[in-house]
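Reviewer comment 2.1 asked that we show a complete input and output for one of the modelled complexes. We chose the G3I case, as it is the one discussed in the main text.
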Amino acid sequence: MLRRLIAGAAVLAAALTTLATTPAAAADAPLRELAEARGRYLGTAVTAGKLTGGYADLAAAQFNSITPGNEMKWGSVEPTRGTYDWTGADRVVAFAEAHGQRVRGHTLVWHSQLPSWVSGGTWTADRLRTLMTDHITAQAGRYKGRIDHWDVVNEPLNEDGTLRQSVFGATLGESYIADAFRAARAADPAAKLYLNDYSTDGVGAKSDGMYALVKRLLAQGVPVDGVGFQAHLVLGQVPASLETNLRRFAELGVDVAITELDIRMTLPATDAKLAQQKADYASVLRACLAVTRCAGVTVWGFTDSDSWIPDFFPGQGAATPYDESLAPKPARAGIAETLAPVTPPSPGVCSVTYAVTSQWTGGFTAQVTLRNTGTAALNGWTVRWSQPAGQRVTQAWNAAVTQTGAEVTAANLSYNATVPPGGSVSFGFNGAWSGTNPPPAAFTCG
Ligand code: G3I
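Response of the prediction step:
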């Protein structure tokens, strides 16, 4: 095996800089405007009963998509068989329409928050299928033309990626999913229809199961338009493969969205934890921005006073971008800075050096260093380049690296997101080559 150290000639100092953001200006702009300018929506789950005062003002000003946190669940809308209560759901939809916001409908078929007359009943398969499709027809029909995305089926999978044996899965098998989507399409042809689940954010057994399921459904002609990734995340643990995972679903021909983002921490919140949370929010937003078919990001409650976390994870909380008094937290700035407009090249913000440190027949190792040459800290960064001779990245460290064709994107991980002025960060990768292995001609960074 031929091994040689490439020095000097292969070191490319690239003072090329793009994607420089303007964090200070972005910090004050409404998040919904920043998102809109980047071709994404930014949504929040809300509680209908709280939509007054400062809570309502913030929800209206900062978000351009609204999800009812509970009000559209089967148990809320049809607590007793045949008796509908649309009060909460109507209120949320009316609020959204009054403020020029889209609505993510959540959710038509879910094993949880079912009325007891459904969950406790004994049903033949035919009867249950009819109940389910009648419910979808009634609810999606009521809001026909007013819902942007419907979570048609929520949380259909077990942790190992197999079909959850809910009342629907156990009684009807996987066919209930196809039936639900077809009923939803018939009831509201304009709505984008989503499958939605948790713990599918990174590549793993459960997301592999979801990937295979979506593939099967599409092959059967089932009208699945999108896949939602809930992203109920833990501080410092944004999956490194989030972007790769979103991209592989997008490549199946569906839209993707982050649908229930929150990032919980063990209380009390400290400055260090809130800074980490800011970086984590930023990396989730970056992953969505990096994937063209990512429609948007929804936070699961925008204020810590309206989050499910403390009730379900005792001792944990502070998971949202605003605190309990509706004051913005660093996480809110992380979202704003990541959504900040892409500006034309602005020399001096960062530079990149690239060195092949080792090369052998068919393979090589490269080290890339990003230096912050600006005056403000980089809070989250990406480096992009094009491989000039078909080289493929096979493994990377200290960055989340993805490659589509010749185009490579490297993004920070949670632990190296922040680069102070004058500071630098390095990451490396192994690559495969054949023929020649020239260095990239240019890099963009920011
Ligand atoms: O409405 C009653 C109220 O009358 C009663 O006084 C109170 C006493 O605890 O309970 C209230 O109901 C609660 C309801 O939220 C409304 O606040 C339920 O107990 C509580 O279980 C329910 O929790 C919801 C949870 O789904 C149920 O699984 C959360 O608010 C909601 O944020 C959460 O959302 C889910 C998504 O739908 C799907 N993905 C996971 C996500 C988090 O669990």
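Residues 1-23 have pLDDT under 50 and may be disordered. We note this here for comparison with the apo prediction described in Section 3.2.
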